[in-house]
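Sample pair:
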Amino acid sequence: MHLNDIRKELQVWILAEETAGRSVDINRVNEHLQEIMIRQNSAPRSDFNGLSPEDMHNIMYDPFRDQCVVQLNKLDKNQYELVPLIRQALFLLNTLNEKDLKLTKLGWLPLKIVADAYRIGQPEWIIEELKQKRINEYEVGAVWMARIILELLGWIKTRKGVLSLTVKGRKAFSNIDAAANEILRFSLVGVGLHTFDAVEDDRIGNLGIAYSVWLLNQFGSEWHFGSFYQEHYQKAFNFPDKYTIYETRVFSRLFYWLGIVEMRLNKQVGPPFQWEYRKTDLLPMIFSFK
């Protein structure tokens, strides 16, 4: 409903009230205007795929909390060990609990640690295609992401080229169940997805990440190209998409690292060939939907 529509509805109501002989003062006008706004904000909209402006407000500013249409489930050990990114972050946390790590001259994790962490996460297409034996941290986005999560949570620190646990990190390690759930939450709301690319617009994908999860739940039973989800996202968040960066940031990176999508390269269309995505059983395990 646009401003003109609200004004017209208010004028019709005022006329009806005056015709009925009821007085209309500023307090009654404000009360009725508030009723109109509440109704408008709770009404489903097609450009939000049936969600209301109020739903979208909660998605943007209070994601995964009680009022949001997408909520995080509390996972137990048997569940969070199924999530690749959590496995990798906990592996780093456990490794640092046993010993400090001397980083490379450029500040990256040692190659052996990267290789071990990579093996327990999602396979990277380029690494598998090239059959790489020597894998650097910056070539495995999920391992890099796992380290960033731990750093931003304040659980690990780097000093004089050595990576170690902080006091806060040792406390987190003492309650692995809580740590795993915090790693999951932080992966969704605490790390800017633009960290892993050179595209300057940091809004794309980061804003409304809960909406992207909701879209995957709505449409993810079938295979869809990333452009399908990008079009739905762009109806709600009208950002110009550059270099299919929404698909890359959200689907081929974060969602894939979490294991909530599976990917396949469709060679029936193109070249260039495009990736398709479908939700996995981890999605309803991790999230609840209203």
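The longest helix spans residues 3-19.
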